[in-house]
Each structure stands twice: as structure tokens, then as C-alpha cells.
Fold:
Amino acid sequence: MLERLKISNFVLIPELEIDLESGMTVITGETGSGKSILLGAISLILGAKADREEIRAGEDKAELEAVFFTKRKSLIDYLDEKGIDPDGGHIIIRRQIRSSGRSLYSVNGSSITLSEGQEIGRMLVDLTSQNSSMFLKKREMQRSLLDSAEDIARILSRYQQSYSELLELKRKREEAEEKIRKVEEDRAFIEYSLEELEKAELKAGEDDEIKEKLKIASESEYLVENLGSVRDALDSSSRTLSQALMALGKARNKDASLDEYYTRLESASIETDDLLETIASKISTYSFDEYEMEEMNSRLALLQRIRKKYGGSIESAIQKRDEMKSLLLSGDEDLAALDKLSDEIAKKEREVILNSDDLHSARLKRAQKLSASITETLRRLSMESARFVIDVAKTEPGPYGADVVSFLIEANKGEKMSDLESAASGGELSRIMLAVKSSFFLSDDTETLIFDEVDTGISGHAASNVAAVMKELSSKSQIIAITHLAQIASKADSHLLVSKSLKKGRTVSSLRYIEGDEKVREIARLLSGDESEISLEHAKTLIGS
Structure:
């Protein structure tokens, strides 16, 4: 339950701190006094989007804080999963909105995201407004309400897991079928291209090698002429060195100190002979006949055509060759994989159907129970002839099962059963929403319910019955109701009054508890807009009834 609310510099509220009680609390006040501001602050704490325009004029930030106590296991488990200390069920939510646009959001001192705040808020509080009454007409809201029970939520989770796996298998099958179709469609072209590439016997860098050879061939005459001169000079030098080596050998026989010179000269002679042989061999490589030149030019033309056709380089052509070969070789494997996928899909479809049947049975069971409960509550809310049905109709499997959930109403005896969108008036829709919430949440573990003027369009005996149902709900959950109906306010355990005043030339909204004579006067105002003796007596009667 919501135990404390603290607001600072939010719209017309400079400072507010108030403790809230269990049971049923009502909030009343003149139109424009600040009731919607209070609800806006609570909504922000529960994860609504912030607007820096809500910061009180002249201030650079607004601060909001709420203290809750919860026994809800799913919430405590959620906080544990997020690494947030649940502190024995005490939940302190703080939110700071700055004029810079930045918003700070934390739970028990740990920073949270907006989506995390919304999830925590959803588990702490159920907030019903006039807009949510209209939202009740939407099929998605109707299905979501029916699925709020933990047993249905578990089955739905199991169904969604299997359904998601089925969609993934079907996606893989479509990809495999598309791949096989494309290969078969292009097989003739792929086989022709592959034959051309394999016949070419490609080697990376071969075109550059041929270009280099052709360049050398075009300059071979010049190279042979100059290297021939080198060869001749080396040949002459070799003979001269041999003669010198022979003479030095004779001399060292007489003088041992000449050994070092002999060794050096011998090395020079050997190196000269080796270089002479290398140059002679190199000259032979520059001999290109006409046939060889034609072959190289022909090969280069082929490689240039291959390169242009298959990606701009020999390396890319080799890659495409390997890809085509792999594509054709994988055909049989893809067909086998497709057969396996089809078997897996058939198995998963059976699993999805079984899970959808379980989900349908659970929904149907709860729908029948809630239909009777809501019908009974509607009759207590002065819709004596009403009949409410939660219809669960079978359809094709989808993200939320194989059911269409519809809330149907026969508002008056003799009318046909119709969906809420076409059947319910504004006042009826408010009572239907209350009846739905009453039936759903008496069997749920939601600890705080906030009703924002859902009594619009209701008066007289119907209003008294609405008050009685709210009072009944407060025996299980904390009820906070913003209302303009005296019948509802008179049944509250606690009464908060919102008022607006001028302080130091500025408009200020404030909130305080009222009781005794002050509570009587406020209920009299709600009854007739004044504090006449008749309205005061009527107010006392309502409070005492």
C-alpha cells in the first residue's frame, strides 16, 4: 500500500508531505483546486513520462517521493532480479525532474529506467481513470485483464515461448526454401560460370606476374646486350684472377705471411666465377620466342575478361568460384535440412496447439467465473437487468494464443448481447469498469487501487451502490478515490481535501485531512454546492448510514 507521499515544487504544490492510511481514502475539492495535479504526481512516480513544464515556476527542479509497503512476491522477485534491495517490502520511489530535461529515477536508492519504473508501478498500483474506462472497450485491454491471473499468465508464457519458437522455425524454412529456389532458378548460369572459372585454373596474382614478364620481354634486347657486356667483362676478370691466384700461390710458398692475401684473392676469384655463371643463366631467361609471347598475351586477355566479369580481381573471381561450387554442393544438404525443418515445424505446431488448448481452457474457466461475478456486481450498481459475459472464442494461433476475448453486455432486459463499444453509455461504462475491477481484484494481489473520478455520469441510488462496492474493495486493498460524489466520500475511512489559496502573491494547492464538522460541510458542498441546513443534515445522514 501507499504509505507516504512527498511532493516538492510540482506545478502549484511547493511542498507537500502526507501519510496515507489503509482502507478507503477519498480526495475531494473544488474544480481546479489541484486534484489532477496530485494524480499527475502519483502517475509520474508510477512511470508516466515527465514534462519539465510541470516544474513549479521559478524553480529548476521538481522532486517526488512515495513510500510503499508490499507483500507481493512477484514484485519482490522482480526487484531481486534487477539487483534492487527490496528492504523487507518497503519500496521508496524517488523521481526528480529538472528544467534541463534530465529526469532521475530510483527505487530504494538504485537508479531505474522508465520502463522498469512502469513495471514496478504496475505491480504496486492499479490506476483507473475516465480514460481507462474508455480503454476497457479495447479488445487488447479485455484480453489483458482476463490474462492477469497468475495461472493464466504462466500458461500464456509457455504458449508464447512455443509460438515464438514456431515462428523462428518457419522463418528458417522460408530462408531455406528461398535459397533452394534461387539455386535451382540460377543453376544453368551457375554451372556455366563455374565451368568457365574452373577451366581457367586461376591463381592469385597470376595476371601481375604475366604483366611483369611481358614488360621484361619488351626490353629483353636491351637487357641481353648490357648483361652480355657484363658477362664478357666478368669472363675476362675471371681469367685474370686465375693467373694472379697462380702467381700468388708460388710467392706464398716462399713467404707464409702472404697466406692472408691468397685467401682473399681466392674468395674474389670464386665469387667472380659464381656471378659469371649467374649472369649467363639470367641472359638465357630473356629469350622469348614468338609463340611464348602470344601465349602470354592470350592468357592475360583471358584473365582480364575473368576479372571484369567476376568482381574486378582474380582473387574475387576465385572467391566466386568457390562460392558457386559450395552453393551447388550444398543443394542436397539444403533439401535434407528442409525436410528436417518441416518435421520440427510439424512437431512444434502440435505443441503450440496443445498449449493454446490449455490456455483456452484456463481462460474459459476464469471467464465463466468472472462473468457471473461481474453480472452480480452490476446488479448491485443499479443495473438490475444487466448481464455481462466474457466471451472466449477460438481462432487461429497468434502471439497471445488462439482465442478472441470479448467483453459483452446486455445492459437492459430484452436487448441483444453486444460488445462494450456499441452497448455501454458513459455512466454505464463507469459502473462496468468498477464491477470489472471489483471482480478481478478481489481475486488478485494488487494492494492499492486508485480511482480518478470514475463516478462521472452516476448519481442517486447508483452512486450509493458504487460507494458500497468501493468500500467492499477496501477490505482487501487500499482504495484511493478522487471523487465529486457525496455518496462515495461519506463512506471513506479517511477524507483528504484539496484546496487552492494565495500565498505571497502566488497560487498554491494544498492537501489535508478533514473530519468531524469540516467533513460534514465538505460532503454538504458535494451534495448541493452550499452548506444549507438541509444539505448539512443530508450529509450527516450519509455519513451515519
In short: The longest strand covers residues 387-398.
